[in-house]
Specification:
By secondary structure, the chain is an alpha/beta fold. It is built from eight helices and eight strands; from the N terminus they run αβββααααβββαββαα. It has a three-stranded mixed beta sheet with strand order 1-3-2. The chain has a three-stranded mixed beta sheet with strand order 4-6-5, covered by helices on one side. Strands 7-8 form a two-stranded antiparallel sheet. A hairpin with a 2-residue loop joins strand 7 and strand 8. Helix 1 packs across helix 2, helix 2 packs across helix 3 and helix 5 packs across helix 6. The longest helix has 20 residues. The two termini are 40 Å apart. Bound molecules: zinc ion.
Protein backbone atom coordinates (compact mmCIF):
# COMPACT_ATOMS: atom_id res chain seq x y z
CA UNK A 1 0.00 0.00 0.00
CA UNK A 2 2.15 2.84 1.27
CA UNK A 3 5.70 3.42 2.33
CA UNK A 4 4.71 3.39 5.97
CA UNK A 5 3.33 -0.16 5.64
CA UNK A 6 6.67 -1.24 4.22
CA UNK A 7 8.47 0.44 7.10
CA UNK A 8 6.21 -1.26 9.65
CA UNK A 9 6.87 -4.63 7.97
CA UNK A 10 10.58 -4.02 8.09
CA UNK A 11 10.42 -3.06 11.78
CA UNK A 12 8.23 -6.08 12.55
CA UNK A 13 10.92 -8.33 11.04
CA UNK A 14 13.40 -6.83 13.50
CA UNK A 15 11.16 -7.81 16.42
CA UNK A 16 10.82 -11.36 15.11
CA UNK A 17 14.56 -11.57 14.70
CA UNK A 18 15.15 -10.23 18.23
CA UNK A 19 12.60 -12.69 19.65
CA UNK A 20 14.50 -15.60 18.05
CA UNK A 21 17.76 -14.26 19.44
CA UNK A 22 16.38 -14.19 23.00
CA UNK A 23 14.49 -17.47 22.83
CA UNK A 24 15.75 -19.62 19.96
CA UNK A 25 13.68 -22.65 21.02
CA UNK A 26 10.35 -20.88 21.17
CA UNK A 27 7.97 -20.40 18.26
CA UNK A 28 7.81 -16.75 17.27
CA UNK A 29 4.39 -15.34 18.17
CA UNK A 30 2.50 -12.89 16.00
CA UNK A 31 3.96 -9.45 16.60
CA UNK A 32 1.99 -6.28 15.93
CA UNK A 33 3.94 -3.05 15.56
CA UNK A 34 2.46 0.42 15.28
CA UNK A 35 3.35 4.01 15.91
CA UNK A 36 1.43 5.70 18.69
CA UNK A 37 1.11 9.42 19.53
CA UNK A 38 2.64 9.21 22.99
CA UNK A 39 3.77 12.45 24.56
CA UNK A 40 7.54 12.51 24.55
CA UNK A 41 9.80 9.53 24.04
CA UNK A 42 7.67 6.56 25.11
CA UNK A 43 7.12 3.05 23.81
CA UNK A 44 5.15 0.12 25.15
CA UNK A 45 5.23 -3.61 24.64
CA UNK A 46 2.55 -6.02 25.86
CA UNK A 47 1.76 -9.68 25.62
CA UNK A 48 -1.95 -10.32 25.10
CA UNK A 49 -3.62 -13.54 24.04
CA UNK A 50 -0.27 -15.02 23.08
CA UNK A 51 0.50 -12.14 20.72
CA UNK A 52 2.91 -9.28 21.16
CA UNK A 53 1.80 -5.67 20.73
CA UNK A 54 4.43 -2.99 20.26
CA UNK A 55 3.62 0.69 20.25
CA UNK A 56 6.45 2.97 19.22
CA UNK A 57 6.24 6.64 20.09
CA UNK A 58 5.31 8.77 17.07
CA UNK A 59 8.40 10.84 17.73
CA UNK A 60 10.58 7.95 16.50
CA UNK A 61 8.91 7.69 13.10
CA UNK A 62 12.02 9.00 11.37
CA UNK A 63 14.34 6.83 13.41
CA UNK A 64 16.97 4.96 11.35
CA UNK A 65 16.39 1.23 11.02
CA UNK A 66 19.56 0.44 13.03
CA UNK A 67 18.12 2.28 16.03
CA UNK A 68 14.80 0.48 15.57
CA UNK A 69 16.76 -2.74 15.81
CA UNK A 70 18.25 -1.55 19.09
CA UNK A 71 14.81 -0.63 20.41
CA UNK A 72 13.44 -4.05 19.42
CA UNK A 73 16.10 -5.78 21.53
CA UNK A 74 15.45 -3.39 24.43
CA UNK A 75 11.65 -3.81 24.47
CA UNK A 76 11.69 -7.58 23.95
CA UNK A 77 14.47 -8.00 26.50
CA UNK A 78 12.28 -6.21 29.03
CA UNK A 79 9.20 -8.22 28.11
CA UNK A 80 11.02 -11.54 28.32
CA UNK A 81 13.08 -10.58 31.35
CA UNK A 82 16.38 -11.12 29.53
CA UNK A 83 19.64 -9.24 29.67
CA UNK A 84 19.68 -6.57 26.97
CA UNK A 85 22.88 -6.42 24.88
CA UNK A 86 24.87 -3.22 25.42
CA UNK A 87 25.07 -2.54 21.70
CA UNK A 88 21.28 -2.34 21.47
CA UNK A 89 21.11 0.35 24.13
CA UNK A 90 23.95 2.28 22.52
CA UNK A 91 22.51 2.35 19.03
CA UNK A 92 19.08 3.37 20.33
CA UNK A 93 20.15 6.04 22.81
CA UNK A 94 22.51 7.55 20.26
CA UNK A 95 19.46 8.50 18.22
CA UNK A 96 17.26 9.53 21.12
CA UNK A 97 19.89 11.84 22.52
CA UNK A 98 20.12 13.90 19.39
CA UNK A 99 18.82 17.38 20.03
CA UNK A 100 16.34 17.16 17.19
CA UNK A 101 14.42 14.37 18.88
CA UNK A 102 14.57 16.00 22.27
CA UNK A 103 13.23 19.23 20.88
CA UNK A 104 10.37 17.42 19.20
CA UNK A 105 9.49 15.81 22.52
CA UNK A 106 9.43 19.20 24.20
CA UNK A 107 7.18 20.58 21.45
CA UNK A 108 4.76 17.68 21.74
CA UNK A 109 4.53 18.16 25.47
CA UNK A 110 3.68 21.82 25.03
CA UNK A 111 0.91 21.13 22.52
CA UNK A 112 -0.59 18.22 24.46
CA UNK A 113 -0.40 20.18 27.70
CA UNK A 114 -2.92 22.67 26.33
CA UNK A 115 -5.76 20.21 26.10
CA UNK A 116 -9.29 21.39 26.86
CA UNK A 117 -10.33 20.73 30.41
CA UNK A 118 -13.81 19.31 30.64
CA UNK A 119 -13.82 18.09 34.19
CA UNK A 120 -14.34 19.84 37.48
CA UNK A 121 -11.24 18.21 38.91
CA UNK A 122 -8.28 20.44 38.27
CA UNK A 123 -4.61 19.87 38.99
CA UNK A 124 -5.05 21.25 42.51
CA UNK A 125 -8.70 22.04 43.19
CA UNK A 126 -11.86 20.03 42.63
CA UNK A 127 -14.71 22.39 41.75
CA UNK A 128 -17.40 19.81 42.54
CA UNK A 129 -16.12 19.49 46.09
CA UNK A 130 -15.95 23.25 46.51
CA UNK A 131 -19.44 23.68 45.09
CA UNK A 132 -20.89 21.02 47.39
CA UNK A 133 -19.38 22.49 50.54
CA UNK A 134 -20.46 26.05 49.65
CA UNK A 135 -23.95 24.84 48.80
CA UNK A 136 -24.25 23.25 52.23
CA UNK A 137 -22.68 26.12 54.15
CA UNK A 138 -24.36 29.11 52.51
CA UNK A 139 -27.37 27.96 50.53
CA UNK A 140 -28.88 25.09 52.52
CA UNK A 141 -28.20 22.87 49.49
CA UNK A 142 -30.79 24.74 47.41
CA UNK A 143 -28.58 25.51 44.39
CA UNK A 144 -29.09 22.94 41.63
CA UNK A 145 -25.72 21.75 40.47
CA UNK A 146 -24.66 23.33 37.16
CA UNK A 147 -21.92 22.00 34.87
CA UNK A 148 -18.67 23.06 36.53
CA UNK A 149 -15.44 23.24 34.60
CA UNK A 150 -12.04 24.83 34.65
CA UNK A 151 -11.58 27.15 31.67
CA UNK A 152 -9.38 25.96 28.82
CA UNK A 153 -7.58 29.29 28.70
CA UNK A 154 -5.85 30.88 31.65
CA UNK A 155 -7.98 34.00 31.67
CA UNK A 156 -7.02 36.55 34.30
CA UNK A 157 -9.51 39.40 33.88
CA UNK A 158 -12.49 37.07 34.16
CA UNK A 159 -11.90 34.64 36.99
CA UNK A 160 -15.31 33.04 36.80
CA UNK A 161 -18.26 33.00 34.49
CA UNK A 162 -21.84 31.84 34.83
CA UNK A 163 -23.71 30.97 31.67
CA UNK A 164 -27.40 30.78 32.58
CA UNK A 165 -28.46 29.51 29.15
CA UNK A 166 -26.25 26.45 29.40
CA UNK A 167 -26.38 26.16 33.19
CA UNK A 168 -22.60 26.23 33.28
CA UNK A 169 -20.04 27.77 35.59
CA UNK A 170 -16.47 28.08 34.30
CA UNK A 171 -13.62 29.06 36.60
CA UNK A 172 -10.34 30.42 35.21
CA UNK A 173 -7.68 27.72 35.25
CA UNK A 174 -5.19 30.44 36.20
CA UNK A 175 -6.45 29.85 39.75
CA UNK A 176 -5.86 26.09 39.72
CA UNK A 177 -2.37 26.27 41.23
CA UNK A 178 -0.91 25.74 44.69
CA UNK A 179 -0.22 29.51 44.75
CA UNK A 180 -3.93 30.24 45.03
CA UNK A 181 -5.39 29.97 48.54
CA UNK A 182 -8.36 27.63 48.85
CA UNK A 183 -10.62 30.47 50.02
CA UNK A 184 -9.95 32.41 46.79
CA UNK A 185 -11.19 29.57 44.57
CA UNK A 186 -14.15 29.22 46.94
CA UNK A 187 -14.88 32.91 46.69
CA UNK A 188 -14.92 32.90 42.89
CA UNK A 189 -17.20 29.84 42.82
CA UNK A 190 -19.38 31.43 45.51
CA UNK A 191 -19.78 34.58 43.38
CA UNK A 192 -20.91 32.51 40.39
CA UNK A 193 -23.32 30.55 42.58
CA UNK A 194 -24.88 33.85 43.63
CA UNK A 195 -25.70 34.45 39.98
CA UNK A 196 -27.87 31.32 40.12
CA UNK A 197 -29.34 32.37 43.47
CA UNK A 198 -30.06 35.92 42.21
CA UNK A 199 -31.09 35.53 38.56
CA UNK A 200 -30.66 38.53 36.25
CA UNK A 201 -33.34 41.16 36.85
CA UNK A 202 -34.84 42.98 33.88
CA UNK A 203 -36.11 46.44 34.73
CA UNK A 204 -37.35 48.72 31.95
CA UNK A 205 -35.34 46.78 29.42
CA UNK A 206 -32.12 46.94 31.45
CA UNK A 207 -30.37 43.92 32.91
CA UNK A 208 -29.18 43.88 36.50
CA UNK A 209 -26.76 41.18 37.59
CA UNK A 210 -25.01 42.49 40.66
CA UNK A 211 -28.02 43.84 42.54
CA UNK A 212 -27.88 45.25 46.06
CA UNK A 213 -29.17 41.92 47.40
CA UNK A 214 -26.44 40.08 45.43
CA UNK A 215 -23.76 42.30 46.92
CA UNK A 216 -25.12 41.89 50.43
CA UNK A 217 -24.95 38.12 50.05
CA UNK A 218 -21.49 38.31 48.57
CA UNK A 219 -20.20 39.90 51.73
CA UNK A 220 -21.52 37.00 53.78
CA UNK A 221 -18.65 34.91 52.49
CA UNK A 222 -16.44 34.32 55.54
CA UNK A 223 -13.20 35.30 53.77
CA UNK A 224 -14.75 38.07 51.66
CA UNK A 225 -12.21 40.77 52.57
CA UNK A 226 -9.19 38.44 52.34
CA UNK A 227 -10.30 37.05 48.98
CA UNK A 228 -10.96 40.50 47.51
CA UNK A 229 -7.55 41.64 48.70
CA UNK A 230 -5.80 38.57 47.25
CA UNK A 231 -7.44 39.02 43.85
CA UNK A 232 -6.52 42.70 43.81
CA UNK A 233 -2.88 41.95 44.64
CA UNK A 234 -2.46 39.00 42.30
CA UNK A 235 -4.17 40.05 39.09
CA UNK A 236 -0.88 41.27 37.66
CA UNK A 237 0.85 37.97 38.40
CA UNK A 238 -2.07 35.98 36.94
CA UNK A 239 -1.82 38.10 33.82
CA UNK A 240 1.88 37.29 33.51
CA UNK A 241 1.21 33.57 34.00
CA UNK A 242 -1.54 33.66 31.38
CA UNK A 243 0.89 34.97 28.79
CA UNK A 244 3.48 32.30 29.49
CA UNK A 245 3.40 29.56 26.91
ZN1 LIG B 1 -20.74 38.47 38.57
Amino acid sequence: MTDSTAVIDQITDLYQEAFCWYGPKRAVPTIHVSFYPYVGINHTIRLRGGEIFVRIGEICREMPIASHKGLAYILLGKLLGKRIPTGAREVYSKYVKTTEVREKAADNKRVKGRKVVTTSKGAVYDLNEIFASLNAQYFGNTIPKPALTWSAKKTYRILGHHDATHDHIAISSSLDTPNTPHYVVEYVVYHEMLHIHHPTKHVNGRRYNHTAAFKRDEQKFVYYAEAERWVERNVRRLKKDARKK
